Each structure stands twice: as C-alpha cells, then as structure tokens.
Amino acid sequence: MSRKILLINPWINDFAAYDFWIKPLGLLYLGGLLRKNNHQVHFIDCLDPYHPLMMRKGLKIPRRYSSGDGKFFRQVIPKPDALKMYSRDYHRYGILPEILSAELKKHRDADIVLVTSMMTYWYPGVFEAIRIIKEELSQTPTVLGGIYATLCYQHAVNFSGADYVIAGAGEKKILQLLQKIFNEEPLFIPDEDDLDSYPYPAFDLIKKITHLPLISSRGCPFRCSYCSSHILNDKFRRRNPVKVVDEIERWQNKYGVNNFCFYDDALLVNPGEMIAPLLKEIKKRNLSCHFHCPNGLHLREVTEELGKLFYSSGFKTIRFGFETSNLSRQQQTGGKVKNEELRLAVNRLKNAGYKTDEIGVYLLCGMPGQSAGEITESIEFVKKCGAKPMLAEYSPIPGTEMWNEAVDCSPFDIQKEPLYHNNSLLPCRNNEFSFNDYTKLKKKLKNNSGVGGVA
Length: 455
Ligand code: B12
Ligand code: SF4
What we know:
binds cobalamin, TIM Barrel, six-stranded parallel sheet, 16 strands, Rossmann fold, alpha/beta, binds iron/sulfur cluster
C-alpha cells in the first residue's frame, strides 16, 4: 500500500551560517527511493530561502547569488544554557517556527515523518523541529537519521524526542523500518554495492532550484584521524562516471540548472576512475556547467591534464584539504598529502589558467596540541606555493581517532554536550593557540586577501 511520507529538513541553530550550496542530499535520496517503492513523498524545508509564506509576512528574500550560494533567513533566539557564556548572538537559520506549524497542518494525514540532521552541534534546530512535529502530528511516528544521529546516536535516542533514531546510511534501514511498522514488503531494495542502483534524489521536491548537489561516491579510502568519513560510510564506493553525467544532463534538461556542488569525500582520488572520464564526458556532450567543491579536495592527484580539464569544464569553486604543512602532523593524522604535492598541484592549476584567489587551500586550526606558530607557517607555505590559505576550524567528532585526544585537551565537556563540537568555539584551543591568536590570524588573512574559512 502506498504510504504518505513527510520529509523534513530542520533548522540550523548556530552563531553563524552561510549557505554554501547546502541541500539535504541524503534525505532527498531517501525520498527518491521511497517513491520508487510507490509511496507518496512530501517535503518541508526549514532552510528554504525562498519560502512563499515568509514573503507573505513581508520578509525580504535573504541575499542570494546567481551561483546558488547565499544567506538564509534568520532570527535571533536565546542561547542554549551551554553557550550562555558567549556574548555573540545565536540564531535560528531558516523559516519561522509558525510556518513549520502551518505547513505541518497540511499534512495531518502523513503516515510517517522522516527528519534529517547535519552537524552534531546543530542538534537544537533538529529538536525544535521534532517538538513542533509532535505538537502538530502527535499520532504520527517520527524517525530521525543523518549525520548527527549517526555520530551522536545515544544523545539523539535520549534527547531528540523522535520515536525512532537510525544511524548510518538510511536506504536499507528505512525500508526495514517501514516493513516493521506497516507490515508490508518493500517493492524495490537498492544494491548498496552499486550506487547506480539508487534512484535519483527527489529534487523535484525543492521549490526553487538554483543549484543542485551531486555525489559520485560514498566514503573515502583514507583514514585521517580527525575525520568521520569511515563512520558514516564503512566502504569507499563509486558510481559509473558516465551515469553521473547522465544525471547532470537530466537535471540540466529538466530544471535548466548549471551550478552543481560535489558532496563527495574523495572526488579526486584515482582521477582515471572518476573525475577525468566524468569531465571528458561533460565536454563530449557539450554541457555547460559550473562546478563547486566547497568540501576539501585531494590535491595529490592534480596532473597537468587534470588542471586543464578542470579549467575548461567549469570548475569554479576549488578548495583543497591540505590542513597543515607540518610534516609530523601530516604523518600522524593520516598522510593524505605532502608539501611538495601542494606546490606541484598549484603550479599545474596556474598553468591551466587559475589565479591565486581561485585556488583555496583549507588549513585546519585548533587541533589538539596545535600551536599558533604551526598555523602561521602553514599559511606562509600556502602563500609561497601561490594559493589562497583558508582557515578551517577543527570540529572534534566522536568516534574518530583524534577524539580521545580532543576530549583530554578540550576545556569543554565535548563528550556530554555536542554543542561544544562547534568549530567556531575552537573547542580544542590551548595555551599555544588561543582565541586571541586565532582572531589575529584571521584578521591578517582578511586584510591580505579577503580570505575566510567555511564556517
Ligand atoms: C557536503 C559537506 C559539507 C558542505 C555542506 C553540505 C550540507 N548538506 O550541509 C559544506 C562544505 C558547507 C560543509 C561544511 C562544513 N563541514 Co561538512 N560535510 C559535508 C559531507 C562531506 C557530506 C554530507 C552529505 O551530504 N553526504 C551525502 C549524503 C548522501 O549522506 P547523508 O547526508 O549522511 O545521508 C545519509 C545518511 O546520513 C542517512 N540519512 C540522512 N538523513 C536521514 C533521515 C532519516 C530519517 C534516516 C532514516 C536516514 C537519514 O541516509 C542518507 C543516505 O544514505 C560530510 C561528510 C560525509 N561523508 O557525510 C561533512 C561533515 C558533515 N562536515 C563536517 C565538518 C567538520 C564541516 C566543517 C565544520 C568544516 C570546517 N572545519 O570548516 C564545516 C561546517 C560548516 C558550518 N557552518 O558549521 C563533519 C561533521 C562535523 C560535526 N561535528 O558534525 C563531516 C562529517 C566531515 C568530517 N570531517 O568528518 N560540509
Ligand atoms: S579528511 Fe578527506 S582524505 Fe581524510 S579521511 Fe576524511 S574525507 Fe578522506
């Protein structure tokens, strides 16, 4: 029997948030799959910057750019107790709560509600959404999944208010849960080892499409000690690059969209398997795209040929995950890149036509034991290579190899309170790298070239 399933993308509650092509890709993948299983799928996006009911209230659309990034609606809200010591304003990013209530009233007949989650420290926006769902649809089972639910599973079970919490990839698990609740066999189960067997994400549920996210793989073959990729996806799996281009072409034809943002953890690893054939196919089909990669790319793999392919096929926002120029820290954290590889990659990109400002290089700051001196040296090294250094503040993540060290050195109780994973608090700062040091470095970078981190 066909069920009515309501998908909810909850708010972001944080000091600051900017929409770097953010979309709830995982939730919309589940939407596509549930439709293929003959269910009716509906969607409420609390982050929608174009929500018509916000405009009816006389609120102006937040500032947005033609490439698809931009600001969210926002309201100043009281800080959670754990953050009371900060004087900065705290916001709910997205639509007003009364609009979520009004939207929910249209879906009183929903059989089940699925709520996603992203950063662990954004959980208050998730909890608020669940509380309102429970007020409006008190008899409807509510399921919480996503990144926070996976990384802080027990916290989510204890405090979220959801009836079910699911950790990890949701495709098979949501079908199993529906079978358990409604006692019906699924019609279509995708093969987890064949990502091309997954139906496309239900992007038609997005009210106004200005850009779309793409994912050509799940997981990463590396194991950096600060990263949770292996917890979220235990194996590295890739799609067929030609099928990724089929998908791009489909979205272009259907929505006239040409800004795409890659969400892969490891898009550039072994370029011959994915990115090179993908871009060649894009050129062969004469598709005009702008690609954005705000998530750090692997720079080890950038050859002369790849640099040229990037340039000629519309790679606009390029960010590499370099993290540090300190050799021993590079080795201790997983050895994904070496200094010489950055120098070579930047040269090759410049030969292809990119300018310094177009080659952003993330440098992690505030890792346990990291000193201001190490970060300054890394900044200087990136500049010397001819790229643009961008500070990315370290967020400690439960279950990662660096977690225990983070717990030991953090002045915050990061084990008990995920709000303290917020990278903008510099949760693992120390005497060698204080907030003051950070502010100075940030200011210096801004004065030099208007550089900023992702957060
Ligand atoms: C793309 C991305 C971004 C994008 C944002 C995209 C977005 N949608 O919001 C950008 C580049 C902006 C970004 C920024 C940052 N990010 Co980020 N990002 C990611 C990334 C690579 C992919 C997320 C994604 O969409 N995956 C693809 C989809 C298909 O998977 P999914 O959402 O997990 O969905 C699946 C399951 O979770 C589940 N599921 C999802 N919803 C639901 C709902 C239900 C009901 C069910 C049952 C299941 C379910 O099923 C889905 C399908 O299998 C993840 C790493 C990762 N591999 O997940 C890091 C990650 C989330 N980011 C992380 C970090 C650290 C950051 C930064 C702090 C980096 C920095 N230092 O600057 C910033 C923070 C920004 C801020 N303002 O605070 C960390 C998490 C940190 C934390 N404490 O939570 C991650 C996990 C990477 C890591 N280092 O380990 N990020
Ligand atoms: S930081 Fe990048 S290379 Fe390292 S494990 Fe995570 S996704 Fe892979």
